[in-house]
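$ run holo --ligand "magnesium ion" --emit C-alpha cells
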Amino acid sequence: MNKKTVEDVDVQGKKVLVRVDFNVPLSSKDPNDDITVTDDTRIRAALPTLHYLLDRGAALILCSHLGRPKSPADRQFAMDPVAARLSEILDRPVLKMDEVVGDEVTAVAATLQPGQIMLLENTRFEPGEKKNDPALSAQLAVLADVYVDDAFGSAHRAHASTEGVAQVMRAEGKPVVAGFLMEKELAALGTAVANPPHPYVAIMGGAKISDKIKLIENLLDKADVILIGGGMANTFLRAKGYETGTSLVEEDALPEAARLLETAGDRLALPIDLVVADKFAADALAEIVPVEHIGANKMALDIGPATLDLFRQKLQGAKLVVWNGPMGVFEFDRFAAGTNQLAEILAEQASQGTQVIIGGGDSAAAVKKAGLADKMSHISTGGGASLELLEGKTLPGIAVLDEA
Ligand code: ADP
Ligand code: MG
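-- output --
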C-alpha cells in the first residue's frame, strides 16, 4: 500500500479536486432551521492537506457526502453550514456551489484561481454517486487536473466521488494521489495488515460478533493473541457452554464462535469475570461475578477486574496493539470501567513505545470520552473502512490511487 501523496505532485497553478470527509454532525434535522456544524473535528482533520495545497498555489475544488439524504430535496443535508465553518477556520471565502456537477459548476471551476476554494454540493444529492455512475464520474473528472483523496472513511465504498472519478482521471493521465490524512491511516493500519511487529495483541469487543467474524479470522492469522470483551464475549462464553442469562448472545453465530474457538486454541482470551445487571439501564445495579455465575436473569454489561488483570498480563511486552470495540456498555457510567481502564493500560503502553491503534467509531468515541485520545499512537477516523482494511480487504478508493 505504497501510494503517491500530495507531496509527489506539482500543484502550482493546477485545479485540484479533493475528496474530503466533511460528514460532520449538524445542529438540526429541520431544513427550516439555521443549521450549524456541532463538531468540526473532521473539517480540521483535512486542514494539513488543504493548507499544503493552497500554500503551493493550487485552486481547490472540494467535495464530500454529508449524512444520508434520499434526494436533493432533503435540504437539511446541504453543504452550506460546512462551507460557513470551513471559511471561518481558513479565514478565506469558500465558494459554495448548489450542485455537485452541471453547467454552473463547470463554468465556475474553469475560472478558479490559485488560492481559491470551491465546495461542491453534497455528493449524495446525485443519484449516480452511490451507483458509481460513469457519467457522474466523468463530469467530476473534467473539473480538475489532479485528484486527491483524503476521505479514508469512504475508501471502502466504490462511489463516483471516490473510486469512479479517480478511475477516469487516472485513465486521462492525471495524477490520483492520497492526502495527508489518508496517508496517515494507510501507514498505521497498513503496518498492522502487511508487516505487523510482534508480539501483536488484538483486542476485540463491541456489541455483535456477526459483524466481526471475518475480522477475527484475519486477526487470528496475523496476531499472536486476541483478547475478547464486550457483548461479543457472551456469544463465545455461551459457545463454551456457560450460562449467559439475559446477556446479548447471537444464537445464529454460535457455530461460528465455536469454530473460531477451536481454531484459536489458547490464543483467544475470554473474560474470566463480568459486571452483570438485571436490566439494560444506566441506573441498573452492577455486580461483579465470575463467568461461571452469571445467573439466569442477569445480563453481562462489562468485563470485570480479574479479566482486566488477565488482559494486562497478556498485553505485557506487546509491540503492536490493535483495539476494536468497547469492553462494555461504556455509554452507561456504571459499565464503563472495563473500557476506561483498558484505555488507561493502552495509553501507558503507548507512552512506553508500543504502537497502539484504535479502530471503530464507538471505540474511538470511548477513548475520547476517557480523555486519552492524544495518548494513543493512532485513532482511525474511518469506522467501516478501518475494519475492512484490517479484515484484509482491498479498498476500492485506495486501490485506485497511483502507486509510489
Ligand atoms: P465499534 O464502533 O468501535 O466498532 P461496535 O459498534 O461493534 O464498536 O460496538 C459498540 C457498542 O457495543 C456500544 O454501543 C456498546 O454499548 C456495545 N456493547 C459493548 N459491550 C456490550 C455488552 N456486554 N452488551 C451489550 N452491548 C454492548
Ligand atoms: Mg460502532
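-- notes --
Residues 360-362 surround magnesium ion (ligand 2) (CB under 6 Å).
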